[in-house]
Amino acid sequence: LVVPGDTVVLVASTGVDNPVEYFALVTVIIAGSLAGGSLGFLIGRHFGPWLRRSRLGARIGEKNWERSQDFLDDRGGIAVFISRFLPVLHSLTPLVVGMSHLRYRTFILWLAPASIIWAFAYVSVGSAAAEGYRAAAGTLDGAAFYFVGAIVGFWLLVYAVKRLLDRYVSRITAKRAELRAAGITEDGAADADRDK
After folding, report:
1. How far apart are CA 95 and CA 118, in angstroms?
2. What's the pTM?
3. Least packed by Cβ within 10 Å: which of 34, 46, 100, 111?
């Protein structure tokens, strides 16, 4: 995508004027998130290995594919949940899950709560900042600063949380890469011993 979904949701939420619009937007965002994840899962299930070897897969980068695969292998469903909040992994995880042993039902059960939290957080912040701006616009010369400050504050919080989650994923994937380089499988047995 050229424009990240976070940005689209935040901008769309600034147009919310009442509770009906708020819940309608949240519902549409959750449905879109679940539909996008489901489509990614199906693409991964039917075309995943081909896509990974394709020119597009090469542009994504083998490092990103391995990172997503390692995180999923190590954490299972929780990887689906956490990846919803991380760039690159958010897009790759449904594809990788589709290529894995994880069932669609398990995938969607982890994706749904993550999508709900994500949608409510972004729509709440965007609509609250816009409402604060509209309320202060008539009485405060710096209403625009309030609006921009609220959005920037939220982006900084989101950035900090994403950095923490990214470090968590990096620790897991680095550990799995070291084990793979040493020829050790996830159950601790050396590949050579297993083949005997």
Report:
1. 20
2. 0.74
3. 46
